[in-house]
Design brief:
With 241 residues, the protein is of the alpha+beta class. The strands form 4 sheets. A 5-stranded antiparallel beta sheet has the order 3-7-5-6-4, with helices on one face. The chain has a 4-stranded antiparallel beta sheet with strand order 8-9-15-10. The chain has a 4-stranded antiparallel beta sheet with strand order 12-11-13-14. Strand 5 and strand 6 form a beta hairpin. It is elongated and about 60 Å long.
């Protein structure tokens, strides 16, 4: 039996400033660009020219078909009787609008995403990439959300908070999926709220501005929702179909 072992590199950066040495973690570029994120409910658009289709036995067979072809970026398996219609394409999901199909299984290679800083893979299987075009807050949020398994970056764990200096350096003044509610609470895009302890530790006290960025290693407000900025999309490799 053949066993494949993935080795994750943990990078720590040392910064010397004013004679003091500061250490913060980094997220390395993925060593395995052919790793796939697979989700149910999406399909390759029917009007895509750059695709090939075949009748195969299962979604797993379709995934394997894409995996062995270096040019393949994504695949979708739609049930058809006892088999599936397998569609493969060289187009990654950040370059198209996928079709919704509750019966379809869709997957893509993370290394095919177009990122200005490379596709990054953290020790907890979180994947980050920064689209090459700056966008407004809502545009960036929508762009991340239309890629299966991704959202505009949210900082929900101590690991995430520890990476803010790294994010600040690589995606300067990038906005995050955090907004202030009418009641003044800070709410992430998934509906959860920052705790008072997290706010005290990681947020520069704000006034009335409802939107936030990571800048100089902290969460800070920004005033104009029409600003175009770089940003990070965040996803997970792990997950069930």
């Amino acid at each position: 039996m053949r066993v494949t072992v993935f080795v994750m590199v943990v990078v720590v950066r040392e910064v010397v400033e004013n004679g003091a040495q500061e250490t913060y973690p980094e997220v390395p570029e993925t060593q395995h660009p052919d790793k796939m994120i697979v989700r149910r409910g999406w399909a390759v658009p029917s009007n895509t020219n750059d695709k090939t289709s075949a009748i195969l036995s299962s979604a797993c067979s379709c995934q394997s078909r894409c995996l062995v072809h270096p040019s393949c970026a994504a695949w979708a398996a739609v049930p058809s009787g006892d088999s599936v219609t397998c569609t493969t394409t060289t187009a990654a999901p950040d370059t198209m609008t996928l079709e919704g199909n509750p019966d379809s299984v869709y997957g893509f290679k993370i290394g095919k995403l177009d990122s200005r800083i490379g596709v990054l893979e953290d020790i907890d299987s979180t994947v980050y990439f920064s689209p090459t075009n700056d966008m407004r807050f809502q545009e960036g949020k929508d762009h991340c959300a239309r890629i299966p398994g991704f959202n505009l970056i949210m900082l929900k764990t101590e690991r995430h908070f520890s990476l803010m200096p790294f994010f600040s350096k690589n995606v300067k003044q990038g906005f995050i999926n955090l907004q202030k509610t009418d009641s003044g609470r800070l709410q992430w895009g998934d509906g959860s709220f920052m705790t008072d302890e997290e706010i005290e530790k990681h947020v520069v006290k704000s006034t009335s501005t409802p939107l936030y960025q990571v800048h100089e290693g902290m969460i800070r407000e920004f005033s104009n929702e029409n600003d175009t900025r770089p940003f990070l999309c965040q996803g997970r490799i792990l997950g069930t179909w």
